[in-house]
Amino acid sequence: MCLMFxxxxxxxxxxxxxYSISLAHSKIPxxxxxxxxxxxxxxxxxxxxxKSDHEIFYFNQDLDHFTFTPKSYMTFQQRxxxxxxxxxxxxxxxxxxxxLGEEASLDHDLAVVGFLGxxxxxxxxxxxxxxxRYYGKSMPxxxxxxxxxxxxxxxxxxxxxxxxxxxxxxxxxKEKYSTKHSPIIVIGGSYGGMLAAWFRLKYPHIALGALASxxxxxxxxxxxxxxxxxxxxxxxxxxxSERCYNTIRKSWKEIDRVAAKPNGLLILSQKFKTxxxxxxxxxxxxxxxxIYAEAVQYNRDWVTNMCNAINxxxxxxxxxLLDRIFAGVVALKRxxxxxxxxxxxxxxxxxxxxxxKNNHIAWSWQSCTEIVMPIGYDKQDTMxxxxxxxxxSFIEGCQSYYGVPPRPHWIMTYFxxx
Length: 418
What we know:
Elements: H1 4-9, H2 39-45, E1 54-62, E2 75-83, E3 96-100, H3 106-112, H4 115-123, E4 126-130, H5 144-147, H6 151-154, H7 159-176, E5 184-189, H8 191-202, E6 209-213, H9 229-240, H10 242-259, H11 264-271, H12 281-298, H13 300-311, H14 321-333, H15 351-367, H16 391-402, H17 410-415
Parallel strand pairs: 3-4, 3-5, 5-6
Antiparallel strand pairs: 1-2, 2-4
Helix pairs in contact: 7-8, 9-10, 9-12, 10-11, 10-13, 10-14, 12-13, 13-14
């Protein structure tokens, strides 16, 4: 497995997807980055792929691979794509490189995943890309509205079901194209990287090997390092600009001070041009913490550009500390009519926004059931106000939101530590 130590702190650049960060300030857990929110980051870090080489297929997939209840026999159409362009064929026992989709649509993956396209021609490989259930067009129950409606329908969204999906499709492909002796290498990034590693563990008779890029396999329970994710975020920003670091560090108390004023939350909403009114100061704190982490995780130049904006002296010299912070937001997010601090409440004016919302709902469910990563703001994360991860609060919030509690120990129980 590559990048195993870097995996532990998550300060690595994913080949395909972002990773969830549960922010500790919220009473109701925040569920992290929506993968398609960061499409520009992936475009900058991965090679563009010529999608015209891919043929799209749909597989009649079982809803539930593990029970024999009548409902388990329901099926849905799962989307996948194959690139035959450089394949040497079954007679040559040419390999199969299979990208295991993560918390994004297949369209997104085909647009940004360059590893298969870079290495496929040299290996004369068949290139396969499989969409994860409940993302993109691979929706059970006929539509996203039904599939993402509540815990009863979302309950079939988990990593074990996803791995079984991939197994069924890869065996189907091997049979359809008579590739009995073609070795399969499964590939994924971030959550998809975890899936690739887990697939090799659970289905070694199907996959000869796995490439798990930026896969935080050990970031569960007490296996995480003492100084974790936000310690590295702090370190990178401080090394980039100590002035920027100090401005951000001081901003949290200033947000609290403004929020305590009469109409303070309205003032903050106006200052940060939020798309919806703030309910509490933690809304804007979580939003800012997320974008600082985005900048560090995905592109060092983003950190420089953000800090340059925060550090810049305005022509009128009238802007205050929070104006500087907002300048950093604009540098990262570009100039928008408003900035959504809650993905679930953002307007959906087009199909792209609608898909982003669906992806966020699906990933929120996964983050609030089995992909439970204990990441908070510890005292060593000096750029942030201390707010250690509180598992009891997280469980309570998830149960309140979905009606079912998380199973924070299940991943390590089911997959173990390798």
